[in-house]
């Protein structure tokens, strides 16, 4: 898995320090529970310096969501799933293998996009950003479905994404094996979307 500072311009850069501090706090506690003063203390910058880089906490939260997408979904889950299997169908299923590993980690903190969406609401700019990032994940699923030759890849991706998000919620509830359960259901979903006459 990639680390938090991978591909950030300069780990000692002030903006980077603020984003790294915010990432840990927002991922585990949400947006509203974390105040600007805590972000300033945690990143070790002056208040004026903080506001020079981020005019508000919402701006920091936007940077956090962007980093979450780069680091986790696009930077880890999709590439990791592709590296674990040779065919698009198996790569789709491997998403749940990656999730299963994630759910066993002591610091599992669920999906930040879903949490921020529920916390801030769909009409808030942060909620809207979360919806857009979730759509990017769904698009990756659709691309794999197209590569696999599955029918109605848009509907497939919507259903598949329900399994992904549902397994995360179940894991947050304490079901560490939810990804394995979702994987079994996912196999059936793939079968349903295979073209007629396909052997699979």
Written description of the protein model:
The chain has 200 residues and is mostly helical. 72% of the residues lie in helices and 0% in strands. Helix 1 crosses helix 2 (36-43) and helix 7 packs across helix 8. The longest helix is centred in the middle third of the chain and has 28 residues, at 57-84. Mean pLDDT is 91; it is low at 1-9.
Summary?
The chain is mainly α. It contains nine helices and no strands.
Q: Unreliable runs, pLDDT <50, ≥5 residues?
A: 1-9
The DSSP helix count reads 9
Mean pLDDT: 91
Number of strands: 0
Structural class of the secondary structure composition?
mainly alpha
Strand content: under 5%
Radius of gyration: 18 Å
Instruction: List the helices and strands in order.
Output: HHHHHHHHH
Shape label: elongated
Overall helicity = over 70%
How many strands, which pairing sense, and closed or not: the largest β-sheet? Answer: none
End-to-end CA span: 31 Å
């Amino acid at each position: 898995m990639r680390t938090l500072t991978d591909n950030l311009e300069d780990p000692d850069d002030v903006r980077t320090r603020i984003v790294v501090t915010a990432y840990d706090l927002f991922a585990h506690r949400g947006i509203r529970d974390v105040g600007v003063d805590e972000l300033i203390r945690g990143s070790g910058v002056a208040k004026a310096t903080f506001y020079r880089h981020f005019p508000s906490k919402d701006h920091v939260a936007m940077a956090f969501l962007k980093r979450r997408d780069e680091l986790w979904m696009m930077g880890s889950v999709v590439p990791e799933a592709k590296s674990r299997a040779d065919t698009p169908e198996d790569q789709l299923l491997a998403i749940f293998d990656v999730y299963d590993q994630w759910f066993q980690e002591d610091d599992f903190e669920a999906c930040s996009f879903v949490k921020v969406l529920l916390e801030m609401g769909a009409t808030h700019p942060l909620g809207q950003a979360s919806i857009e990032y979730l759509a990017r994940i769904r698009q990756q699923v659709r691309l794999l479905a197209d590569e696999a030759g599955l029918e109605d890849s848009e509907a497939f991706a919507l259903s598949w994404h329900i399994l992904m998000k549902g397994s995360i919620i179940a894991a947050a509830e304490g079901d560490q094996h939810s990804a394995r359960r979702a994987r079994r259901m996912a196999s059936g979903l793939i079968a349903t979307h295979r073209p007629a006459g396909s052997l699979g």
